[in-house]
Amino acid sequence: MSELTAFDNRIDALIAALSPQRRKALATEIAKRLRKHQQQRIKRQVTPEGQPFTPRQDQILRSKKGRLKREMFSKLRTAKYMKAKGSNNDAVVEFTSRVKRMAEVHQYGLRDRPNVWAKEAPYPSRPLLGLDAEDLKIVEDELLKCISSGST
Fold this sequence. Notes:
- This protein is mainly alpha-helical and 152 residues long.
- The chain has helices at 5-17, 20-43, 97-108, 133-149, and strands at residues 82-86, 91-95, 111-112, 121-122.
- The chain is built from 4 helices and 4 strands; from the N terminus they run ααββαββα.
- Strand 1 and strand 2 form a beta hairpin.
- InterPro entries: Phage_virion_morphogenesis (IPR006522).
- This is Phage virion morphogenesis protein.
């Protein structure tokens, strides 16, 4: 048993005492802040553990001279594809259905076809979503801000 169990139970009781509307607003705010942090981390091309992403494979066939490639996941991290939702019980950051499959392939390092005519290729694991110490700090800050404001 952790010495913080009593503290956790007290926090749970304070959150449960909030009105459903306030809990939903709290969860939505937490989800938005977590999404922003996840977007920044994806832009830096770093996993939640702090390791850099495995670089792209070189495209030997049909590569054009002087062609600059975009950084990985530049469109994927936009708010159009990365949604933040909050409800009474949880805060969720997820990818929309259109890009969810591609994100799962990179998150877990699965096999997929880069295009319709290509053979299946293995993709290295590049975790896009995950919690790190900074994310937990964001959640704590939002909880403390909500509880200290005193509005239930």
